[in-house]
Amino acid sequence: MRARRVTTVATTLVASLALAACSSTASGTDGAASGEAGSPITIEHALGTTTIDAKPTSVAAVGWANQDTALALGVSPVGFGAQTWGVEDGSGMMPWTKEKVEELGGDPVLFDETDGIDYEALANTAPDVILAAYSGITEEEYGTLSDIADTVAYPETAWATTWRDQIKYNSEAMGLATEGEALTTELETLLDEKVAEYPQIDGKTGAFMYAGLGDESQIGFYTSLDPRAGYLEDLGLSVPQSVADATETADGFYVDISAENIDQLNDVDVLVVYGDQALLDEWQADPLISQIPAVQNGSVVLLGNDGALAASANPSPLSIPWGVDEYVQLIADAADKVK
């Protein structure tokens, strides 16, 4: 994932709901799935169509945070990828994930995905379904995964699945579409309540940036396709025209721009970035980057170079309630500095 370029960042973010044996019609970005109660579930995604004959009893996950949907719905996965960036206790799990695993009494196998998917370890967990709604798996990887178990990939674009679609596709794959819809509604209500506490955010534009300390030759931002950028809208910030235009023309979920064209970001009120005060100091000292109004004003949210807060900015159904209070407060503090 793109955030590997950001210093040391690697980006490859609820109450339990009662389980119910149901499989109801659900749709993703373009209408993802169909199914009646007790009948096979058919899910269309970017890499094909997956038909799941019966409600799974054993769930595994690859990619980023897909296990959090299962956990939020009361399902303890048999295995998922070990997480390294953002994990501060060496457990291989984000704090919100670990908390839920322990609450459910699970004992998942953590796959080492450093050099790609560990198919052997994954197969040994004997899953009925593999959740990969937020991932970057290729067609070849999808084929291999599908040989192990029914696999549900991302809706349209690799690494561009919103937290809502993470829930939609993953919950449908587990036969829990209705519960997934309830979870989405619950999170939307939570976010609305939190944002309402900070009226200074209203009307401000925001963009999620990335840059490497010591490299001012270019700067970049995530387009609206990226869930981190999309999450800023949930937290009350509007999409700047510069980001909207780039989203229309970009090939993927990020855009690099030369420092000489930095004025493209003049319509951004609040910048969110992986980094600390050292990065902001460097930006404010740079003759070009310092011309961005948000940099001049200091209306910048610094998420740190790693750690759980930085990871929570890439939202999941468990990371949202875990980190929203601190995140929205930081955004409000930055909004107060806009001139």
Helical content (DSSP H or I, runs of 4+): 25-40%
Number of domains: 2
* Protein structure class: alpha/beta
Mean pLDDT across the residues is 88
Q: What is the 3D form? A: globular
Which CATH class of the largest domain? Alpha Beta
Note the gap between the termini: 34 Å
Number of helices: 12
Question: Can you summarize this structure?
Answer:
By secondary structure, this protein is of the alpha/beta class. It has 2 domains: 2-9 and 20-193, 3-Layer(aba) Sandwich (Rossmann fold); 199-335, Nitrogenase molybdenum iron protein domain (Rossmann fold, 3-Layer(aba) Sandwich).
If you had to describe this structure to a student in words, what would you say it looks like?
The protein has helices at residues 66-72, 95-104, 119-124, 139-148, 163-173, 177-196, 227-234, 241-249, 277-285, 293-297, 308-312, 319-335, and strands spanning 33-34, 41-45, 48-52, 59-61, 79-81, 109-111, 129-131, 150-152, 206-210, 218-222, 254-258, 270-273, 300-302. The chain has 339 residues and is of the alpha/beta class. It folds into two domains: 2-9 and 20-193, Rossmann fold (3-Layer(aba) Sandwich); 199-335, Rossmann fold, CATH 3.40.50. The strands form three sheets. Strands 6-5-4-7-8 form a five-stranded parallel β-sheet. A five-stranded mixed β-sheet has the order 11-10-9-12-13, sandwiched between helices. A three-stranded antiparallel β-sheet has the order 1-2-3, covered by helices on one side. α1 (66-72) crosses α2 and α6 packs parallel to α12. The longest helix is centred in the middle third of the chain and has 20 residues, at 177-196.
